[in-house]
Amino acid sequence: MIRIPVNSLRHTILARLVLMYLVVILPIILLGVYLYNWSYKNASEEISRNALAQLSSYLEGLNREIEWLEIQQFDILQESELHKIAVTWEMMDSAEKRSSVNYLLHRLTSIKNSSPYIKDIYVHIHSIDKTISASNAVRALDRQKYEEIRSIGERSGSRLVRQGDSLQLTASKYGGKNDEDPLYLVQIELDNDKLKDSMGPLGAYPESGSILIAEEAGFTLSSTGTPPGLPDEWIKAVKNLDDNTMLLDIGGREYHFNLAHSDKLSLSLVSYLPEGTVRRPLIKFNLWAWVFAVTSVFAIVVYAFSTYRYVHRPLLSLVQSFRRMEGGTLDIPIRHEQKDEFGYLYDRFNQMLVKLQTLIDQDFKQKLMMQKAELKQLQSQIKPHFLYNSFFILNSLAKTGDTDRIEQFTIMLGEYYRFIARNGEDHVTLSEEIKHARMYTEIQQLRFSRRIRVQFDELPVDMQRIKVPRLIVQPMIENAYEHSLESMPDEGFLRVTFERTGSECLIKVEDNGNSIDDAGLVALRHRVSGPAESHEMTGIMNIHRRILLTYGEGSGLFLSRSSLGGLQAAIRIKIREGNGDVQTANR
Q1: CA–CA separation, 446 and 7 (whole Å)
Q2: Boundaries of each HAMP domain copy (predicted)?
Q3: Which residues fall within 8 angstroms of residue 273, CB to CB, at 6 or more apart?
Q4: Quick one: which of 43, 530, 531, 563 has the most CB atoms within 10 Å?
Q5: pTM
Q6: What distance in Å separates the CA atoms of residue 128 and residue 146, rounded to the nearest whole number?
């Protein structure tokens, strides 16, 4: 058995692996706790924002409705037939009285039916001792209620007043003398049941509700399901409220309250929601967080033991064997009965000296094969990114019935994907590559023809037969659309040009976007020209790597600031025909 000094244990890979496991797991546990609290806070704030928006919108709608009722009330006050009844009733015969009353009843009924918030409309005519209402027609004037509503209306500065258990709108018409009673008084009684129904959508969550409060009138109207005692508690608390949102404990249970106030109506609208309703979706998350924490502690113990047995001890054997080899002992093999990765390492260690030259030769061949495999892998990473957009374009053309453009578009799309899907050749002629890139640009023009202009030069004849890796130009155009031109508020401009100077060919893709600053451009150049160490490679790094592997040093993708103000991506191809590295197609 291998013994490890206690004082050196902290320097072993075992200790580092266990520590690393803790470093990975503990932040996840802490992150879970943070996410739980953040989710609760975020959910509460989001619910409060939505509730306040709903409350404000409801009060605005109610204010518009009240303003409309006040306009109708004013029209009734100016009604000539009503003035005629109040002043000349005694001089009218029965037919005239009946006609005037019927006309007034028709007016009151029409107004009542025009708004769901009206329970009844009363016209109290003191001079003839009558009350005319939309629901009860003509009846004797109830002087006690008349004096009560008149007194409330005269001393209240609010538009809405309370009589009994409902809110009222009152307006009076006086004669020529100020000390006389009004000729008549128009009273609109609001329907509490309709107000409750309109407040129903404000309580969308279980056990939630809303309360309408008229502080000056001492009126409170609660939606269905309001817990007992909640309005009284809230009215007391709202007087000392410093914010539109607060948490209130009522009856041993916490509620989230949101308040919106209308100065025009002197009304406050309150919504409430039990805190448990906010936390309910997070209960399972909390439970699983604890399960995860306990499981993680258990996993740490199992992981530490397994690492020591299956990694640490075999690794120590390998280290000791290397030390013996450094001391000149080359004839002591490592014995390992298990057929695992360490068994493979031990076997290769035992054969290392006798197969050194073979391994060197294999390494050389593997490098050549790796280069070709890397080229194949890089090329396979190119994927089309605008399939969904193509379907949306087809959908739009189908809706407009533009069959000619549908036919043209499907042909272009078929040619595009046929080029993408072909697997026979790694390289194509530059004319084929440019034809594919131009087709992609024409497809994009169907989407952005109104705000993106394109200048696509003709490919020179002496460049058409050059053999290039497939899909090196179209991804650059796609990159310009996706990261620059699509998000521009102004008109975008894309330009594709070609140059041939001796043994060097240039393909330039430029735009006038402003999506990258100078610092970002420098960082992007560094990433493109740096070593390909990551398993994930962006599109432009892909293109640069493929061209570099195909044509060697001096070729590749070079980024700079375009004269248009945006990004210029130049694909440079070094053609070395004199050295036998001919990159042109056979004619």
Answers
A1: 72
A2: 309-361
A3: 47, 51, 205, 207, 208, 255, 256
A4: 43
A5: 0.45
A6: 13
DSSP class of 264: T
What is the phi/psi pair of residue 246, to 5°? Answer: -155, 165
Q: Helices 13-77 & 192-199, crossing angle to 10 degrees? A: 150
Query: What are the structure tokens assigned to 160, written together?
Result: 């809405």
Of 374-378, 548-552, 563-567, least confident by mean pLDDT is 374-378
* Coil vs helix vs strand at 531: coil
Quick: pLDDT tens for 572-582.
998 875 433 44
pLDDT at 29 over 50: yes
| H or E stretch covering 198 | helix 192-199
Q: How far is Cα of residue 226 from the mean position of the Cα atoms in its chain? A: 34
Nearest to 387 by CA among 423, 422, 416, 424: 416
Handedness of CA 104, 107, 110, 116 (dihedral sign): negative
- Packing angle between helix 430-448 and helix 387-400, nearest 10 degrees? 50
Domains of the chain: 9-294 (no CATH), 379-579 (3.30.565.10)
**Do 230 and 272 form a contact (C-beta atoms < 8 A)?**
yes
104 burial via Cβ count (<10 Å: 0-12, 13-18, 19+): buried
pLDDT at 478 over 60: yes
Alpha carbon distance 152, 170 (integer Å): 9
Mind listing the pLDDT tens digit for each residue in 116-174?
889 899 898 888 888 888 888 888 888 888 888 888 777 766 788 888 888 888 888 87
Tokens of 172: 């009076």
Quick one: tokens of 287?
């439970």
In the structure encoding, which two tokens stand for residue 501, read together? Answer: 């100077």
| Average confidence score pLDDT of the chain | 77
Q: Is the pLDDT of residue 4 over 80?
A: no
Q: What pLDDT digit, counting tens, does each position of 281-314 carry?
A: 666 666 776 777 788 778 777 777 777 777 767 7
Rounded to the nearest 5 degrees, what angle is found at the Cα of 536, between the Cα atoms of 532 and 541?
Answer: 50
Torsion of CA 313, 314, 316, 319, to 10 degrees: 180
| The token pair that represents 371 in the structure block | 């280069």
Task: Report the C-alpha gap between 470 and 428 in whole angstroms.
Answer: 6
Helix (H) / strand (E) element for 18: namely: helix 13-77
Distance CA 321, CA 261 (A): 82
Q: Is 516:505 a contact under the CB 8 Å cutoff?
A: no
Instruction: Point out which residues pair with 511 in neighbouring strands.
Output: 494
| Closest alpha carbon to 195 in 217, 216, 173, 165 | 165
CA 15 to chain centre: 43
